[in-house]
Each structure stands twice: as structure tokens, then as C-alpha cells.
Amino acid sequence: MNYFKAKDENSAGIFYGIIAYLMWGFLPLYWKLMQEVPAVEILAHRIVWSFVFMLLVVLLTGGLKETLKVMVVRKKLLMIFLCGLIISVNWLTYIYAINADHVIETSMGYYMNPLVVVLFSVIILKEKMMRWQVVSIILASIGVLIITFQYGRIPWIALFLAVTFALYGLIKKIIKLNPVTGLVLETLIVLPVALIYIFSLESTASGAMSSSPAALKFILAGTGIITATPLLFFARGIELTTFSMMGFLQYIAPSITLLLGIFIFKEDFTVPHIISFGFIWVALAIFTLANVGVLKEPELLKVKV
User: Among the residues of 26-102, which ranges form H helices?
Assistant: First the structure.
């Protein structure tokens, strides 16, 4: 009975994980609906409505006591402030990139994210790096260099998304908060700035809520649900299945985003793009196979800083 129960839970966890990553992958379609709204204003609304939605979730699930308990721990509050700041910058970069027709570059950033996480784990947490991880990072770096020469510039959107999301994950790992409590507090901390910005726009009738059609107002309000729902599915998924499985599933989202960029938004995907992404895909394949134990290597090094 225990075996079948564990098997059912694992299957349910995989299902929740797939749903979460599918939602994240198709997210550019939602941001494109607000293309005429400035990225900073979309961000402000995303913060406000995410807080409102997550506060409702906290109240309905009885998590208010735990949330209040965290708020009196000064050290955790400081880390939550950093999380709120970093994820806000990440969201702003992502929204700007989608609406400025850099969808393919955002997918590159989230493909690179696991490898940046490894680098941070080695440099900051002093974790040991395996041979295959080194190979993965070298191959991904070659991919970035190829696209840099193609663009004539560093793909800063991809790198910025990868680095900020890795930093966000690293801090979340250190403070060990459940995702619901974490997001409601992170949005609460940046909420005053978002509200001041929105009210300043609305007071001059230049904000989207006062100058846009009703449909767009509902879309802006929906940013809270769109932000929080995949996170809730992800949190449930990671409870029921293995971390390595969720790590494997995470490639669903950037793959969908890449396909959207190529076939729906008709962005350029040239031969240098294919070669660059090819190096990154191979790097991720090696990284994933090493993580699940298919590729086994002795420890190569431990970076000391």
C-alpha cells in the first residue's frame, strides 16, 4: 500500500510540476496583451495584485499566523527584502523583454539559470563541483559567446534573467520559507512603492486603470493570479515528487517560450542562434544526466573563495 501511495503521489507531483511549467512557458502570451502599457506600470500592478491574491491564499489556508511569526524575525525580514527587490527587477526585465520582442532571449536566460545556480552554489555556498558540471558550464559559456558575436553585444537580458533568478533562488534556499509565505511578504515589502507609482499615474489620469478599456483593466488585475497560480502548483509538485524530477521538468517553460518566439512572434532565429542554443541544450542535457546519476564522475574540484 505504501508503495502504491508513494507512486501515486509522485505521479501527482509530476502532474503539478508540468502544469506549473506549462503556465510559465505560455506567460509571454499574457504579457503581450498589455503591450501598450509601460513595463514599469505592469510591474507595479503585478506586485499589487500578486500581494492581494497571495494574501487571500494565506487567509484561506490558515497561514496568517506563520506569516506574522516570520515578520518579527529581523534577519529573515532583511533577506525577504532582498528577495522582493531581486524578483521585482527580474519581473521588470522579463516584462520589458517580452514586450520589446526579445522573447527568444528570455528563453535563453531561463535555459541558463540552472547552470548559474551551480556557479553560485560553488562560489557562495562552497558546494563541490563535479566534472560534468564544469563541462556543462564551459559549453553554455561557448553558446553565450557565439550569440554575443552574432548580436555584436552581450545578451544582457538572458544573463540578467539567469543571474537574478538564481540569486532569488539562493536567498530562498538560505531563509527556508514556504513559497506562499515568501511571496506574500516579498510583495508586501515592495507594495508601498508600487502603490505610490500607480496612484501618481492615476491622479493625472495617465494610468492604465483610468485610460484603458475594461478588458485591459481586468487583464492587469489578473496579473496576480497569473503570477501566483503556477507558483502554488510548483510548491505542491515539489512536495510530492523528487527535486531532480522538478529540475528536469523546468526545461518545459523556456522550450515553450522559445517556440512562441520563433513561430508566434516571428522573431529571428538564425543559424548562429541554433548553434548557440545547441551548445546550451547539450550543456543542460549533460547537467541533467549527471544530476539524476546517469553520468557518474569523481569530484573534480571545490572552488575556494
Answer: 27-32, 39-60, 64-71, 74-99
Q: Which three cell numbers stand for residue 282?
A: 547539450
Q: Which of 253, 87, 93, 40 is nearest to 184 (CA)?
A: 87
First to last CA, the chain: 49
Q: What does the pLDDT read at residue 46?
A: 96
Instruction: Enter the DSSP assignment of 101.
Output: T
Q: What's phi and psi for 129, nearest 5 deg?
A: -105, 135
What pLDDT does 291 receive? 76
Q: In which band, very low, low, confident or very high, does the pLDDT at 121 lie, cut at 50, 70 and 90? A: confident
- Write the CA distances from 283 to 135, 157, 295, integer angstroms: 7, 20, 13
Say how far residue 66 (Cα) sits from the centre of its chain.
Answer: 24
Query: What is the percent of the chain with per-residue pLDDT over 90, rounded to a whole number?
Result: 57
